[in-house]
Please model this.
Amino acid sequence: MDIYWHRDMAALWADYSRRDRVPHAIVLTGPAGVGKRAAAAWMATQQLRPAAAAPLPQYPSPVLEHPDMRWIATAEDKRSIGIEQIRTLVAELSLTSYEGRGKVAVIEPANDMTNNAANSLLKTLEEPPGDALLILVVDRVGKLPATIFSRCQRMDIAVPTESAALEWLNRLQPGAAWLDALRMSGGAPLAAIDALENLETSASMARDLELLGKGRGSAVETAARWAKLDPGFVLNWLSQQIKLAVLATSAGREVADGLAIDDSVLRRMDRRNLFCYLDIINRLRGQPGGSYNVQLTLEGLLIDWATGLRDCGLAPPSDGMQLMLARRQT
Model:
């Protein structure tokens, strides 16, 4: 199924190819769930086997099996992309192409590279092999070194309009609760596919968040329930909710599409600290899994929320106890 909000990106790529001006390195940016990995797979196919490439990136996204193609990702038992993975890739890029169309490597997410891995890649970006294409998929722009960014062509994939996203999702599965899933996922259609499976969980979390925001319920008991869920899902959901709260208050409104809490909760919050709170959550999202105690960290976050964000910490914690101690000095 065509990912048709990629049309502008595909047209730009076709123009590069037609003029024989394909960059040696691309950074794909955009919110989670807009199809960056599908775009990377499509670009690789366009480069190595253009006759087999669809006019637009596809969902589900087929990854090209090709002797000149390498896909580098964080290993299941690792927290980051290490220097050995990049060194091996760099050595392979220096070899002659099997089929004469060059070599393609996708690194995703590139923001998961260790500092040493990024430095190892930097020399290749400074002196790229003439027939190699590097595609870096970036989920968190702020975590990719500026030295890497400056040596790549940036292509940003934007979220489609809500109506366009709903049209696409309804073609995928007619009659599903796509509007709720889409708003829960920040408008990104591919993220909405995952969100659809978690609507009941999200509704339960929304009730918890509103109850705590009204000064009722137990932050510790809520954290214990949330800790049984996938930490990435919990933090992503919480980040989206606080972002919607920030947007609503910045626009002078008390509600926003997809916001799970009511205006009485927002009125109770110290709105100056909403940005601080969102920053803490997003920085936690960028920490490797297993690098902090999930339940204690959630306790700290939810205690802050239950107390109206009056004592929002300035820095993401290594665990919940540190979060509760690292209060903003007034």
About this structure: The longest strand covers residues 103-108. The CA atoms of residues 185 and 192 lie 6 Å apart.
